[in-house]
Give the backbone structure.
Amino acid sequence: MVRFVHLADAHLGRRQYGLEERERDFLEAFNEAVDRIIEAKPEFVVFSGDLFDSYRPSPTTLVSAFVGLKRIVDSGARVFAVAGNHDLGPVPGGGRSSPLPLFEKALEGGLVNLSYSRPVERLDGVFVAGLPYTPRQEVEALKSALDAISKRVQMGPAQVVLILHQAVKPIVPPQKAEIDRTVLDRLAFGYYAMGHVHDRNFPRRTSQRRPIAYSGSLEVVEEREADKLEVYGKGFYVVDLDGEEANISPVNLSSIRPFLVFRERVDSARGLEELASKIEARVAGGTWAKPPVVRVSLSSARLDPRDVKDLQDALRDSLGQRVLKVFVRLRRLDEKLGEAEVSIEPKIDVEKVFEEIIPAENVRRLAIEIYRLYLEGKGSKELIRELERIYEGWAP
Ligand SMILES: [Mn+2]
């Protein structure tokens, strides 16, 4: 029997809605996960990709990730990781790379970056194997690498963990999946530690044979994940693996930003008022770890976008600091045109804005000209030539 922790999709550095608070939320979730992993005293940790939201994390994000990983390694648990699609960026000369090799070096092997060139590591009586995210068009390479790993580990001990960052059919709909679960089921792994799908698929402590397990993202990366937040929570799994029998204990993090999602059909001003009171009551009635994000999705055949904008402004006023942010979205229902998203923000007239901020007329005209050229997609040399032409036209 072996005990390990499975986590994935930390998406460090993600600044959802452009809000600094959301970037901090992702870091807090990661730091809480690190604390609770150390408490769980696993023999090792597997990380199934998307440590970062971008393959070019900011220096502070890189340092935060390093500090957290080092704390795990210093507690005595090695970390086995694969790169997710968000960690991978192009490298000069072709191919893709992630910041993970940097951590492997800096942590002196305390973190192992499993890759096509080194897909398997042995730790006492356990084989830990893994491959980075592989796009659908390269899935044949993934399959043959999996076959090769499977043959190699069959000779060894019974405990084998496979780490992947892929969408598997039918756990996700076929159009979003890269591989079919039958491909995995016929291989000789005891536990499939999956990343990429942000909703967890094992809500309760449960004993499973050779499970294909998604531990889910550590925070709400996409708004739609909020729907399952109450049922599944966010966090990681502690796994007790005995041969091909895995006991999965989900650990839920408590620092997750709450989301209140309201989806309603409203066709009258009265209906908007009722909805506003309902939202206020819900915010007032809850006890939250942090001020929640409030998302209102309205559908309507009649409402004027300006009234919906007024609702958003009114809610922002009345809810104030008790929420992080209120967003209202409007979908127009039309018998002929079908459903369409309608912007509730007034369109910005750039020339009017320039008029307000640039009083000198010739400078303003130049600014508008540069803006137009930019919109036409004219860059560097072409832009300079055009500007020279304008300048020559100005000369006496
Ligand atoms: Mn992800």
User: Anything to note?
Assistant: The chain has a mean pLDDT of 92.
